[in-house]
């Protein structure tokens, strides 16, 4: 398995869920911008599951040397890369904040995804799982820079799924709603609409095994976003969402 964004609590919970379900991997490649943190997780799955893992540094804000990844091979890619950034008004007009949100969530991420997608295509097998966001379903004033990047990522995954379908590679788009993670720490989240990492991992694993195309972590978010998408624009623009 290849894991992009392996410091993510959801990514780590998914890895553990897969191993608990008896999935076997020759090696799990943990791509991370925080090597020390990820090495602790690698040691954890080695002790708990006797699963070999390799930690590979990947900082999307720096130039990437793809030759380092030539020997990385897998049949599952799990992408949990995400960066919410500063969603305040000050952050909105901070061009460095805006660039970082767009780069990490989309523009610098997609070339990495494409690099591995080409390997999957050449083998004519595999599954690519990408964590997008409900924020990408419709732009809202509270987080529209982040939402726009996630909307682009959702569209990318949709097109990739279409392109790879007859190459026998499946692409699954996951749309989490509120998640109880480090990224959302301190935010006033409704507990009924918020999933814990283990809960999310179980939902994602189920969608993966069923070869779904798009899945919301909590089904209620599918209903919520359907309503939000269908609010007429002349009403929607007056709302504070």
UniProtKB/TrEMBL annotation:
SUPFAM superfamilies: NAD(P)-binding Rossmann-fold domains. Coiled coil: none annotated. This is SDR family NAD(P)-dependent oxidoreductase. The keyword Hydrolase does not apply. Keywords: Membrane, Oxidoreductase, Transmembrane, Transmembrane helix. InterPro entries: NAD(P)-bd_dom_sf, SDR_fam. The chain crosses the membrane at residues 214-231. It comes from the Bacteria. Belongs to the short-chain dehydrogenases/reductases (SDR) family.
């Amino acid at each position: 398995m290849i894991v992009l964004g392996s410091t993510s609590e959801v990514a780590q919970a998914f890895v553990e869920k897969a191993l608990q379900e008896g999935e076997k991997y020759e090696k799990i490649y943990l791509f991370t911008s925080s090597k020390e943190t990820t090495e602790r997780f690698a040691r954890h799955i080695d002790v708990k599951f006797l699963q070999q893992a390799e930690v590979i540094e990947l900082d999307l804000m720096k130039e990437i040397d793809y030759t380092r990844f030539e020997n990385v091979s897998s049949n599952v890619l799990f992408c949990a890369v995400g960066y919410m950034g500063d969603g305040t008004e000050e952050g909105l007009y901070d061009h460095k904040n805006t660039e970082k949100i767009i780069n990490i969530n989309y523009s610098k991420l997609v070339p990495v995804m494409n690099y591995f997608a080409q390997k999957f295509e050449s083998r004519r097998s595999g599954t690519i799982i990408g964590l997008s966001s409900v924020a990408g379903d419709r732009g809202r004033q509270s987080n529209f820079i982040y939402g726009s990047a996630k909307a682009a990522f959702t569209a990318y995954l949709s097109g990739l799924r279409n392109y790879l379908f007859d190459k026998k590679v499946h692409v699954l788009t996951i749309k989490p709603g509120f998640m109880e993670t480090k990224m959302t720490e301190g935010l006033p989240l409704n507990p009924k609409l918020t999933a814990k990492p283990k809960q999310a991992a179980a939902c994602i694993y189920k969608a993966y095994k069923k070869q779904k195309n798009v899945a919301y972590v909590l089904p209620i978010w599918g209903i919520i976003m359907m309503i939000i998408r269908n609010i007429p624009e002349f009403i929607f623009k007056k709302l504070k969402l």
